[in-house]
């Protein structure tokens, strides 16, 4: 049974692995998604409905998203190597570091409280398409009538709060319970809404998923860090 996205918005804050809130155009061209240093600025195309998936990935209503949180290529100064994903919760951006001081920048939604947010370096140890979502034991203990029925997990699909893709972050071989994933609430990008995980627009997490292999480094900043220009 899919979760109702409005009921999620009205629910209590979720913890890390919960990764959800406290509560007729063409798809992106292959040329645009194959260049790690360039992003085509045709947003109607980039954020169009995606065909060929087992579940619907609808077009993004661009009027719901602040323009600065749409995907774009930017200048970015950082000591991190190309291929690293740098997450800046304070600025609400994730950067895929490229060559020559360039990066692809994605708008993100972040944890609504500082204590929910992971910090430091991790590794993408697993990638999943249409990932399964499972509420944490804390969520089930806190609201057993609401979340107990999902104790065994919710299969991937159009109503799953993780969206079409997820990247799982591990540190020292252990799951941090921190993920980069899609969202059923695109209007929340650029805000503090989740319980720690990083959410991207579905088309953006699909783009990032294609670009980063298992083993890629992810750095989640506290304060300071690289500079976009």
TrEMBL record:
Instruction: Give, as one word, the top-level EC class.
Output: transferase
Q: Does the keyword Kinase apply?
A: no
Species of the source: Bosea eneae
Q: Which pathway, per its entry?
A: Cell wall biogenesis; peptidoglycan biosynthesis
Pfam families, A to Z: YkuD (PF03734)
Q: Which GO terms describe its molecular function?
A: acyltransferase activity
Q: What PANTHER family does the record point to?
A: L,D-TRANSPEPTIDASE, L,D-TRANSPEPTIDASE ERFK_SRFK-RELATED
- On whether Acyltransferase is a keyword of this UniProt record, the answer is yes
Record-linked Gene3D superfamilies = L,D-transpeptidase catalytic domain-like
Q: What is its EC number?
A: 2.3.2.-
- Please state every residue range assigned to the domain named L,D-TPase catalytic: 83-221
Q: Which domain of life is it from?
A: Bacteria
- Which UniProt keyword terms apply here? Acyltransferase, Cell shape, Cell wall biogenesis/degradation, Glycosyltransferase, Hydrolase, Peptidoglycan synthesis, Transferase
Q: What is this protein called?
A: L,D-transpeptidase
Which residues are responsible for catalysis? Answer: 181, 197
In the record, the note on similarity to other proteins reads: Belongs to the YkuD family.
């Amino acid at each position: 049974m899919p979760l109702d996205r409005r009921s999620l918005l009205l629910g209590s804050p979720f913890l890390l692995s919960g990764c959800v809130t406290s509560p007729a155009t063409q798809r992106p061209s292959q040329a645009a998604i194959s260049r790690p240093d360039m992003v085509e600025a045709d947003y109607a195309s980039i954020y169009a409905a995606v065909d060929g998936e087992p579940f619907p990935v609808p077009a993004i209503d661009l009027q719901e998203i602040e323009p600065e949180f749409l995907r774009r290529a930017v200048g970015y100064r950082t000591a991190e190597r190309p291929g690293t994903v740098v997450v800046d919760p304070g600025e609400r951006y994730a950067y895929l570091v490229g060559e020559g001081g360039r990066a692809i920048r994605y708008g993100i939604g972040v944890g609504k409280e500082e204590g929910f947010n992971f910090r430091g370096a991790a590794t993408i140890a697993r990638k999943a398409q249409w990932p399964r979502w499972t509420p944490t034991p804390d969520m089930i203990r806190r609201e057993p009538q609401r979340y107990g029925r999902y104790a065994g997990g919710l299969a991937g699909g159009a109503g799953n709060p993780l969206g079409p893709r997820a990247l799982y972050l591990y540190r020292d071989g252990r799951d941090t319970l921190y993920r980069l994933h899609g969202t059923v609430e695109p209007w929340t990008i650029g805000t503090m809404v989740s319980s720690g995980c990083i959410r991207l627009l579905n088309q953006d997490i699909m783009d990032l998923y294609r670009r980063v292999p298992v083993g890629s480094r992810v750095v989640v900043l506290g304060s300071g860090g690289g500079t976009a220009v």
